[in-house]
Every structure is written in C-alpha cells, then in structure tokens.
Amino acid sequence: MQIPINNKYIVIGDVHGCIDELKALLIQNGFKIDKGIIDAFSSDKSIILLGDFIDKANHKKIAQTIEFIYSNYYHLNQKQQRFYILRGNHEEMVYRYITKDSSLELTPKKLEEKRKYYNTVELLENNIDLKNKFLKLYSELYIWLKYSYSDTFSISLTHAPCKEKYLTKDDTLSHKKMVKSKSRSKNIGVKLDDLIPYIHQEAKDNQHYHIFGHLSQANIRKYKNKICIDTSAIYGNSLSCAVIDKNQLKFNSVDFQNKQKPTSQIYNTLFDF
Length: 273
Known about the structure:
Purple Acid Phosphatase, chain A, domain 2; 9 helices; 12 strands; alpha/beta
C-alpha cells in the first residue's frame, strides 16, 4: 500500500516482545506515553512496525506488547491512519497455529519448533482475550508499504528482504517472499550473503531504498539502497528505527533496557564483505 508523503514516519525494526525498548524508542522520538496510551498530539510522526512484534520474549512482556500495540493502534487510527504494522513470519506462524491451519502438519519437529520459536502460541491458547486482540490485529497487517516522495526518492518497506521482482507485488508468492526469506536455522554455517545473495547483487546506488528487518543483526546494516534495521533488541542489543521526513532518512536506536532476560544469538552478518 502506498502511504501519504505529507506525513513523517518512524519505522521500527523487530520488537519481539521488547515493550520497554519500544516505549523508550517512541519517547526518544518525541512521543509522550501516559498509562500505556500514546498522546496523539505529542508527535507529528506516524508509526510503522516492520513485523515480528511477538515471540522470543517471556509471556509477560509479549502480553504487554500485544496490549500496548492493540490499544494504540485503534487509538491513533481513529480519525486518520497514523499506525501501520507489517506482517512478519512470526505473526504468520502464530496465526496458523492458533487457527489450527490444516496445512500445518503437527509433526514432532513442528511441535518442537512451536515450543522453541513461537512461544506466543501457548500464551494465546491460555488467554482468550489476548488471543482475540491478536487475531483482530492480524487482520489489519500489511505485507508491504511504499513511500514515493519523488522520482528520485522512495522507500519500500517489508518485513523480510526479497528479490526486486517480488517487491510490492500482490500475488501469493510475492507475499510469501516479503514475509520470510530463506531460513538461517535450516542452513547452519552458510553465510547470509551466500544464502540470500540477491540482496547485495540487486543493490543500487540510488535513493530508492528497501528497508526490512527479519535478519537480527548487531547493528543497522546498509549496502547501497538496501537497509536492515533489525538490531536484535531481544538478544540484549538495541531496538532501532528509521525516520522518514520528506526526502530525508535518518536512524536512531535505544539500548536494551534490561527489564527482562535476553535470549542468545550467534550473528550471521549481512553485507559482510
């Protein structure tokens, strides 16, 4: 979906239940939050989450994250849209589990993956109110957004990196590619630049940017017009954002707030050449 060019935007990478970092990042960017509700007049920016706002954190923090996003999504979008959320692979898989998707074979391996990677499922199975809020939010998720400021400056936003032939397309295969790239866990030992080489091969020296998350890096990774802003908050690192203002693009982040136990990560670095 094309988003209005007369708005400023804060585009936030993978939250993964890091509610304290999300609030801190919003406050750092001019938003005021009172009792969990964002003051709609405190900032002229609109909010975009790049997906994967659930999983990996503990149940308490995931629940707080869903509640915060749910309340503020409908609060900020009452008169005009000021809060957008993209679908990440974690939202998609959790949705498939809790709706008992018949195409999802519950093999022992799948059940282990459910326990290990998609711990939001258990939380939602035991909390009907939270499950209903998640399902309602899920129905609102976008696959892609595009900001087209001029013939020389634009930004495409997806959860996962993908080949340009799939970018901002609306067929089923393109949607799949924009939500999840090749699995790193199933390709242990393969360098990320070899696993998804199209990212650097298709990169161009222009200002038609493609910003994505999904890949849990130690810092913001940029190569020409390709930018990954998933900086591994849940792994104890930081939560980062891109700020779009007309034809200007800036970045900032907040450190992990140490209000929950981080999970562990061995980084597979993108653009490592």
